[in-house]
Amino acid sequence: MKIQLRFSLTFIALLVLGMLSTTMTANASYGFQSQNIDTLRDYQSKRPLKNKVIVVDPGHGGSDAGAIGPNNVTEKNVTLAIARDLRELLSAGGATVIMTRTSDRDVAVDGSSDIDELQARVDIANQANADLFVSIHTDAFAEHGTGTTTYFCPGSNSDLARFVQDNMVSQLKLYDRGSQPSDFYVLKNTNMPAILTEAAFISNPKEEKLLINRDFNKKVAIGIYNGIKQYFIQ
Asked: What distance in Å separates the CA atoms of residue 217 and residue 224, rounded to the nearest whole number?
């Protein structure tokens, strides 16, 4: 009788332990799955540009210095610095980034004509079947010229230009010259939404000084990046 009782108590204890173990395993498994789902959502939120192909075009380069500021700062060097910062942000956001140039060089061939050079940039974007084309420039007019501008092709959707412009102005705190239509060659000959940004006036001594400041360049890149994100999630 005592033996049977001991056996019964032992069996019950093992049964209860088994049920507890199963419950704990199930809870642990559920928690792990929940954690994975949360991680996936975080990953997706941090990579909002996944599967997007974006061409970044640092204006000028090589034999074409672009505009030159009063203290001999060249547009081609500024645009390349900003483009590199933008490439890092876009890549971290999940985009495939294609640069029309990654160094101080002509995109077509050395000493090519202006049209050939611009067409080479257009060809890169069109052949890649890119989702967006972003050309980076600095403005030049007179010493008193000031502010930030973003251009888009007349007749096309202006949302991208507006979002990028608003976000650049928010970052840079310069005069808002708005988003404006323009028939720039690279805008009217690309097959995808395209913009051309003028971050600041290199002809203005104060803004020229800003354009060689790394923190300022990063702010330009952040403004463009935030505008692109807003365009895709609107």
From this structure: 11
